[in-house]
Amino acid sequence: LLELCTYGLLLCWTVRYFGLELDWDRKLLESRVAFTYHEFTTWLRTVTLPLVGVAFLSLSWEILVAMYRCACVRGCFWKLWATLQWAIMATATVGLFAVSLVPFTYIEHESNGKLWPGIHQMFGAVERFQVVNSYGLFRRMTGVGGRPEVILEGSYDGHSWTEIEFMYKPGNVSAAPAVVAPHQPRLDWQLWFAALGPHQGSPWFSALVLRLLQGQPD
Question: What is the DSSP letter of 215?
Answer without folding.
Answer: T
